Amino acid sequence: MNCQFCFTGRMGLRKHLSTAEIVEQAVFARKLFSDEFGTITNVVFMGMGEPLHNVDNVIKASSIMVDEQGLQFSPRKVTVSTSGLVPEIKRFLNESNCDLAVSLNATTDEVRDWIMPINRRYNLSTLLGTLREELRLRPKSIVLFEYVMLAGVNDSVDDAKRLTELVRGIACKINLISFNPHSGSQFKPTPDEKIIEFRNMLIQSGLTVMVRLSRGDDQMAACGQLGAAGDYQLPLLRVPEKFQVAL
Fold first, then answer.
1. Rounded to whole angstroms, how far apart are CA atoms 91 and 164?
2. Which of 16, 64, 106, 193 could, after both became Cys, cross-link 112 (CB 3.0–4.6 A)?
């Protein structure tokens, strides 16, 4: 997807996992970790690629995970994350009873066009309008909006105000994510104290907000760091002039 802040996203497409390969990961994780950490109860489709690019197999795999004859996860504990593929979002919300997470990361089309090129096809208005429309048919569903905090890019007071307005009318939670630096990255993480200020503004507006702490960044295994550069990486995109100082 060539998200500019994500090491994984700039690797390009390597392959799609089959339904069996996806389910096998959950089965294998249970075997590896249940004795040490207790029963594994949550599954999130994200990380190495855009799940809804592989929508057929993701819907099949998630249905096996929540089936009583399958892995017996609760549908509320299985979440599929997307960068914003609108037709596939519609299909997922109509065919699956699992939860949806949307990687938002910007409050204007100018910024999102730059850091998430998918926005040039499905802009913020189209994406959020689709969610409002489709979620009317799923009144018990809550969308998780993921928001990676990038210093000087999407972490201003105005961004907090715009974010509040953008998600108004959508049953949601906001997950603020500290940016994890990696090789070739243009971006810097927002300081922790500014993340807390941003969070508090959203809470004061009536939103439910979580802050995700970085885990695994010392091993290049945190959110947005997974992958291997290889011989090919998608290109960095032109930085809008007003953000060049921030970078």
1. 27
2. 106
Q: Which amino acid is at 37?
A: F
Euclidean distance between CA atoms 115 and 106, whole angstroms: 8
Question: Which secondary-structure segment (H or E) carries 115?
Answer: helix 109-115
CA-wise closest residue to 144 among 106, 104, 113? 104
Cα–Cα dist 147/106, whole Å: 7
DSSP one-letter code for 189 = B
**Domains of the chain in sequence order:** 7-229+236-243 (3.20.20.70)
* Rounded CA separation 106/109 (Å): 8
Per-position b or e across 107-136, b if 16+ CB within 10 A of its CB: bbeebbbbbbbbbeebbbeebbebbeebbe
Sign of CA dihedral 205, 206, 211, 212: negative
Residues 6+ apart with CB under 8 A from 169: 132
Summarised one tens digit per residue, pLDDT across range 70-129 is 999 999 999 999 999 999 999 999 999 999 999 999 999 999 999 999 999 999 999 999
Mean pLDDT (the chain, rounded): 90
pTM of the predicted model as reported, rounded to 2 decimal places: 0.90
- Which pLDDT score, from 0 to 100, does residue 63 have? 98
Q: Region 43-65: what's the mean pLDDT?
A: 92
- The Cα angle at residue 145 between residues 3 and 60, in degrees rounded to 5: 80
Whose CA is closest to 246, among 193, 191, 192, 188? 188
- The tokens for 121 are 């096809």
